[in-house]
Amino acid sequence: MHAQNGHTSNGIGQKLEGFFDNRQLPMYKDKPYSYAASRRRAPLYKQWRVIVGAVLGILALFYLFGPSASRKPRSTGKSRGGAGLSWLRGPDAAAVDWNERRERVKEAFMLSWDGYEQYAWGYDVYYPLAKSGDQMAEKGMGWIIVDALDTLMIMNLTSRLSHAREWISTSLDYNQDQEVNTFETTIRMLGGLLSAHYLSTTFPQMAPIADDDHGAAGEDLYIEKAADLADRLLGAFNSESGVPYASVNLKTSDGVPSHADGGASSTAEAASVQLEMKYLANLTGESNYWDKAEKVIQVIDNNGMEDGLLPIFIYASAGNFRGSNIRLGSRGDSYYEYLIKQYLQTSEQEPIYLDMWNQALAGVRKHLIVYSKDSNFTVLGERPNGLSKALSPKMDHLVCFMPGTIALGATGGRSVEEAKKSGKWGEKQESEMQLAAELTKTCWGMYKKMATGLAAEITFFEINDPPRMESDGIRKSVEITDEKDAAWKQDYTVKPMDSHNLQRPETVESLFYMWRITGDVKYREWGWEMFKSFVKYTAADDGAGYTSLADANEIPPVMKDNMESFWLAETLKYFYLLFSPNDLLPLDSIVINTEAHFFPRFELTKTLKTGWERKPRDSDGKIIVEKPKDSPKHERAGASVSVTAAEPSETVRTVKVEETKKDDT
Ligand code: DMJ
Q1: Using CA of residue 213, residue 218, residue 222, residue 227, what is the dihedral sign?
Q2: What is the DSSP string of 563-609?
Q3: Which pairs are disulfide-linked (predicted)?
């Protein structure tokens, strides 16, 4: 392993010191980190004005994208530069060729992949500025290679896929004495392998490789690696409650409680391993994978959260929440995403998940949706001290998965037109689509607000006091216009420590869902503008790839030396899908995991099924605890105040409420 670019080489935590604020990688759900030691300015040639106007810029771009003598030629695809970067400059043509635009995305992917292949092949972390890499485990985890497999497939990059497969077959070995994050390893590695298995077996014409053909020696490579990895990960679920520990040792399969947060796991992490384990169970017939993952949701739900909204930490020991911080950003996000996606994965045969999703979405609308002060942007805020306390008008970029997921839930993945014809349409779906459209616009504004056109990690909004909630009347936002000093921008605030851009996918993910579901071309146009900003402002020297930004609000931007695996696995994949014909992986036949890996929908079986029921609860979601027959009163768990609630039965009865577990932070 190397000690390059200011990173030490002993152990993963040390290796990334100062990069992830002394935490192990990957911990993207953590707070922003400090950039003091690692801020680098973009080289001059990456300044937009220079790119547009100067001969120097043209030469630099040719250098960046043109054929490079030091790279070996590929048998597939065009030269790296394709038609050059003239497409970045001119005004968009009236008649847009979307296939042409998706070729530009493919070129950006090839540039990123080839840079990684040349400078850091087999490493889990890639520094495109230093042109070096690092490992997260001694022999590597395949972090970048496995995460990118299905993007290579849909882009039909056959020779690159062959190289990746060869590495997986000869070098990837999960039998390592290494503690890894349970969730990240599940969504990226297990998800990546399963998706590769799904695409290569169902769509053999995508990047066709003889080695994985039916009957060939390598036929089961992906599924074998996936099952081996999953068996190691299962140890994380051996907690007292069944809620997985934050980490797991891959060799011993021992679960390891989080080293921070009082040992509690992130709720989103515990509750976003289900799609992967359930698909693996479906493929292998092994119910163990299913049961372990299913149990987690039952334990969570038995907490009886108010209005379906839950705190962002949960103890694996007793299965109870830690604290009362509620948000759909870091540590909360994909719990909600996986509710509706579990319902869709099993072909709408598990109403329990639709029920939980509907309850949570209603809770979001009641407690977290707020309008910005002057321009009426729809903001999905946070309740850091619980639902009865003040709302914080803060949105992590991570929250921007939500509009696309709301649209997915409203139509099941069909277009609005098809959903209307199917009869499953009414006021509820109509208003969910409106909410999805407004939230998508808010996320798009996060990009337009910034000097580079690339969103900050966290954005705050100006709101009224008291906040204007949905119950005060639904509002429509003003138009997002281009002027530098446009008034709408005053509702957006980005703090200096939050102005980094980590190449995250959530907004383009939502644009993709919104385009497929509404057919409104503005989502494609927004995506194209975003994509151009990535190309203009995040390119590393010498065609080494694209990198994160430490400050996306300065031109030239301050660069951060890291190309995230989800840049290849998600961000570029969603751009590619956004510009692709809609019959590439129709949304009503698949589910896409939280790392953008594809799984098919399938049916329940006698052994692979939900297997539990929700406990009866009040209209606000609190569980009703039935008292012995001789008592006239009922109790419910989990709230902190006494209330009188109307029950659906004949009489109004008093409800005694137990005290919520106190935040022990
Ligand atoms: C990805 O690893 C996944 O999408 C995850 O659920 C949340 N965010 C990162 C990328 O931002």
Answers
A1: positive
A2: B-HHIIIIIHHHHHHHTS-TTSS-TTTEEE-TTS-EEE-----SSSS
A3: 400-443
> From the CA of 347, how far away is ligand 1's center (Å)?
24
Å from CA of 595 to ligand 1 middle: 6
Catalytic option among 117, 350, 396, 457: 457
Please name the residue whose Cα sits nearest to atom 2 of ligand 1: 595
Q: Where are the alpha helices (DSSP H) in 302-415?
A: 333-345, 351-367, 402-411
pLDDT (0 to 100) of residue 401:
98
The dihedral built from the CA positions of residue 321, 322, 326 and 329, taken in this order, carries a sign that is: negative
pLDDT in tens, 225-258: 999 999 999 999 999 999 999 999 999 999 999 9
Identify whether 525 is a catalytic site residue: no
Asked about 333 being catalytic, the answer comes back as yes
Lowest-pLDDT choice from 402-416, 515-529, 630-644:
630-644
Mean of pLDDT values over 594-616: 98
Are 122 and 145 spatial neighbours (Cβ–Cβ below 8 Å)?
yes
Q: Answer yes or no: is pLDDT of 122 > 80.
A: yes
Compute how many other C-beta atoms are within 10 angstroms of the C-beta atom of residue 373.
17
Instruction: Report the residue count for the chain.
Output: 665
What is the widest separation between alpha-carbon atoms in the chain? 89
Q: Are the CB atoms for 277 and 293 separated by under 8 Å?
A: yes
- Cα of 84 vs centre of ligand 1, distance in Å, is 31
301 in active site: no
Angle between helices 143-154 and 158-171 (to 10 degrees): 150
- Cβ of residue 343 lying under 6 Å from some atom of ligand 1: no
- Across the strands, what pairs with 396? 458
Q: How many CB atoms lie within 10 A of CB 513?
A: 26
Residue 653: beta bridge partners?
Answer: 645
Closest residue to atom 8 of ligand 1, CA basis: 398
- Nearest protein CA to atom 1 of ligand 1, as residue: 595
pTM of the predicted protein model: 0.85
